Hints:
Order of helices and strands: EHEHEHEHHEHEHEEEEHEEHEHEHH
Strand order of the largest sheet: 9-11-10-13-14
Amino acid sequence: MSNSILESASTAGENTGAGTGRGTETSVVMSMQQALNRALGEVLAENPKALVFGEDCGRLGGVFRITDGLQAKYGADRVFDTPLAESGILGMSVGLAMAGFHPIPEVQFDGFAYPAINQIVCQIARMNYRSRGTLPMPITLRVPSFGGLRAPEHHGESLEALFAHVPGLKVVSPSNPHEAYHLLKHAATRPDPVIFMEPKSRYWQKGEVDVNGAGSPSGAKVMRAGRHITLVAWGAMVARCLQVAELAAEDGIDVEVLDLRWLKPIDAEALAASVRKTRRAVVVHEAPLTSGLGAEVAQLITQHCFDTLKAPVERITGFDVPYPSGDLEDEYIPNIDRILFGIQRVLEYRRG
Length: 352
């Protein structure tokens, strides 16, 4: 199955209604790109200390148009462009947070975050601890993440394990427009630094967004209930797992899909509740297998569900190679067949 974008990128430039208030709306159909744009507009309206900035985030509205129209509405002193220097963008974010602002910077592509690792790890993640709580870092770093665009090298990465490993950082990844809207609004009110990993291959996926009824923006979320096996995923892989669940149902296999949402802290309670019910689990992610976040998820499942598991936890992941560009992404990113074979291995496992 192809891992290319399901909807045309040509919709990225359409009118997003930046900063529109909620009014009497309850449910609105929009793309993830529009949901993120709306969330940022509302954060800027509600918090005068919020600032949005990054490469091309101002007048252009970002390469994916997530910040489209925000500068025109809120001014160039609150939504602005930066030089092409990720270390400078994140270093400036540290200073702004120390001065009492809530920076919402954007790293244009996930692979561009590497030059700013020093600022993220040594400053943003540690400043609150280093200052004994006197200098919190309310920074929400937006990172267009993962593959699916068939873009050049460094334009598609899967860095969640790197960020989740760093004490002091929180990490979250939405899977659909509704989650993107509510999780970003929640992240942008946290007193702690949050790495917000947006699945860029899903930017043009449309869905219903309940702008007034969020449910809990914390923890994991069951996206499809099932009885026989749990698929655990995040970001773009949640939609892939939902497709797998529909196909598996044709063969009488009832698959539960758990959207982890928060990759740090991981909702171990929800994870255990799902796997205790199904007694089997497959973890799906785009990052390489070795030391990927799936290993942490598998350990938590084993720790909490060892007495009820009917089979070892399976991981369906990318391969232990650099994230490929172009058409090779189709071979790298977990596809429907690989996930179905993983389910089959777990269901057919017999001890002894």
